């Protein structure tokens, strides 16, 4: 993987690095905070062509969404396409998974407005910057079943039963439309102010794609619960019908099992702990 010091010297030769902190890492990137003001994200992709293309697309997408998004998003200071590095001024606030707000339902109008606007982005303006992601519903279910087999021993028997009923059921029909999606809108990518309960930014657009808009709403349900989900769709430009809601719940259920498996197998235990804590509402019979 790329050495962050060499990247900084190349693109910001007169910038004095006083402090350098690793903020964390996921499947795709390692993220650093420099001097408490500059975020530098380094791709973990080993394939040079794929790494360059992903970085180019994300930098271009962030530029294209400037002025379109209703919430702050990163504004690149530099993008090293070859090395897979992207730098931007740190947005204020902390991720919601690290700093839960007292009344998350108050976030719903802002989230509904943000997703309405994002999902209305003209596709001809972004289709060279994001790719279609037509992952079949059966593949989602199969991935979730594989993840469950890896982690079932970490889940109490009463919770296993509804999970196993879900995995044995038929997935919902495929979506009829696609839009621009963030495609990874978990609470780790939603920032909130340190002294307010207001959303201050949306980060990590690496996985953005042309996909079912219910994927974004699904992670609101997964991470913030059914009440926040219902309030968010009440503020969404095109309220989902029963089929849309069924897909959102389906994606939430699949993705929470994959999050738990990622946490257990990678050592990022906070992902597993959060996912297990949310299983009751995600697999409720009333969801």
Architecture blueprint of SSEs:
Blueprint: H1 4-11, E1 20-25, E2 29-34, E3 38-43, H2 48-65, E4 76-80, E5 85-89, E6 94-95, H3 108-119, H4 123-126, E7 131-132, H5 137-151, H6 157-167, E8 179-181, E9 190-192, E10 199-202, E11 209-211, H7 214-224, H8 226-234, H9 242-266, H10 269-282
Helix pairs in contact: 3-8, 5-9, 7-8, 7-9, 9-10
Polypeptide structure, described:
There is one protein chain. With 287 residues, this protein is an alpha+beta fold. It has two domains: 4-89, Phosphorylase Kinase, domain 1 (2-Layer Sandwich); 94-282, Aminoglycoside phosphotransferase (APH), C-terminal lobe (Aminoglycoside 3'-phosphotransferase, Chain: A, domain 2, Alpha-Beta Complex), CATH 3.90.1200. Helix content is 44%, strand content 16%. It is built from ten helices and eleven strands. It has helices spanning 4-11, 48-65, 108-119, 123-126, 137-151, 157-167, 214-224, 226-234, 242-266, 269-282; strands at residues 20-25, 29-34, 38-43, 76-80, 85-89, 94-95, 131-132, 179-181, 190-192, 199-202, 209-211. The strands form three sheets. It has a five-stranded antiparallel beta sheet with strand order 1-2-3-5-4, with helices on both faces. It has a three-stranded antiparallel beta sheet with strand order 6-9-10, with no helix packed on it. A hairpin with a 6-residue loop joins β9 (190-192) and β10.
Fraction of residues in helix = 40-55%
Mean of all residue-level pLDDT scores: 95
Shape: globular
- Structural class, from secondary structure content? alpha+beta
Number of distinct beta strands: 11
Number of domains: 2
Q: Hey, roughly how much beta strand do the residues contain? A: 15-25%
- Distance N terminus to C terminus? 42 Å
Largest sheet: 5 strands, antiparallel
Number of helices: 10
Q: Which homologous superfamily in CATH is the superfamily of the largest domain? A: Aminoglycoside phosphotransferase (APH), C-terminal lobe
What is the radius of gyration computed over CA atoms, rounded to a whole number of angstroms? 19 Å
CATH topology of the largest domain: the name is Aminoglycoside 3'-phosphotransferase, Chain: A, domain 2
Low-confidence stretches: none
CATH class group of the largest domain: Alpha Beta
Order of helices and strands: HEEEHEEEHHEHHEEEEHHHH
Architecture of the largest domain, CATH level 2? Answer: Alpha-Beta Complex
Query: Spatial order of the strands in the main sheet?
Result: 1-2-3-5-4
GO molecular function, one term: transferase activity
Pfam family, one: APH
Keywords: Transferase
Organism: Phytoactinopolyspora alkaliphila
